[in-house]
Each structure stands twice: as C-alpha cells, then as structure tokens.
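Retro notes, structure queue

What went well: the backlog is down to a handful. What didn't: a couple of records were mislabeled last round, so from now on we paste the full input next to the output in the thread. Example, using CUB and sushi domain-containing protein 1-like from Sinocyclocheilus anshuiensis:
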Amino acid sequence: MIIYLRNLLTCGSNLRGPKGIITSPNYPVQYENNAHCVWVITAMDPEKILLPLIETVGSTMRQQKMLPNRLCFINTYTYPNPKPTLTVIKLAFEEFDLERAYDTLTVGDGGKIGDARRVLYVLTGSSVPDLIVSMSNQMWLHLQSDDTIGSQGFKAVYEEIEKGGCGDPGVPAYGKRTGDHFLHGDVLTFECQAAFELVGERTISCQQNNQWSGNKPSCVCKSHFLKCMIIINMLAFRMINVSPL
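Corresponding output:
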C-alpha cells in the first residue's frame, strides 16, 4: 500500500507557560483538510517555587509587606526550607467546532505524543468541552482532520495552576454556585435562577486525577419564553447598574 503525504499539512508548536492561547490553523476561518497539528505545553520551570519577595536586613531575613503582584520566582536553594509548588496545565476552550467523528482533537498528559495510556480526551463535534487539567507539568494536543469538509476549528486558553486541584469550572449562565475551592475532594453545588432548569450534575467533586466528576451544568428556560427573557433582561440591567465599591 502506498501512502501519499504531499498534501498533508503539519503544524503546531512547543509552548511554555504561564499562560497563552492555542487556535486551530486559520482560526476563525475554516482549517485545512488533512491537517496533522501537534502542540506541546510545558510549565515554565517545575523546579522553581513561588514565594513572596524578601529582603535581607543584617544577618536576618524578613518578609516585605506584600504589594499587588509583588511576587518573584526564586530557585529552591536560595530560600531556607522551601516548599516547592508543582504546576500542571489547565486548558479552557472558548470556541470549538470540528467535523463530528471525522476530525478530532486529542488531548493527552505528559510529553510523549500519541501515548494511548496518557490520553485524557478525544474531542469532536460542536459542543464546547469543559475544563481539562493535566496530571503532570506537560500537556499535548493533536488535531487531525480528514480530506473533506472542514469546520471553524477551536480556540483555547492554557494556564499553569498549582498541582492538587481541578481548576475553576466557572458558573453556568443564569445560575449560581456554592463553593469556591477547587482542590482534591472539594465539592461544588449548582442551581439556576427562577424560570430556569438545571441540566446536568447538580453537584460535582474534584477527583485525584485533576478532573471534575462531572461537567459544569447549564441552565435552560423551563417557563414561558417571555418570562425567561424578562429575567435575563433584569439580570443584565443589574450588572450594568452595579457601581464599583
């Protein structure tokens, strides 16, 4: 069997933290057929730790008064008894549209591309995926399309977060959430505004594999459409008229 590769589009890149954006080729215009794109995301430096800025006074060290954003990376050997902060990768999709079943985006953990044992998700279709968090300081994405019919593609934001959590899954539109901690074992509970019905899991927990036990639910109109529109407009009016503290 002869395989012709001359029309195969190869793309992708090696990316580093702490934060960035990944898009499919040509986004928001349709990506090419026969695309084979690989992105590898690596945390900036897993050997470093995040500590408050310090200054030396005589032979002693004292912590400066913390100011906004006044943090610095210090190698572990420069601070007595340091506590290392291991980092993992959080991937949040803003847009997603691949030809269902024929074009796929595989998301895996670690730096070994294509290892079936490290695959986290195989994504396709037009539903925006929920938050994905790696187990290690590396994550890889592999976009593969066939030779017909492309779609808009995807846009995602990656960010380094501290290991031991699942990341903030957000709050559903026209809903609210109880719980503001996202570490292993933490539980979040969701509910919807009046006239809206919860679709999905009401309660999810952060598991040891850094994934939530369920996807973030959504709130859909369960009453007369006009009643829902009135509530939506009221919520929007409140947001516009909220004055800063």
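Agreed that this is the format going forward. Reviewer comment attached to the example: The radius of gyration is 22 Å.
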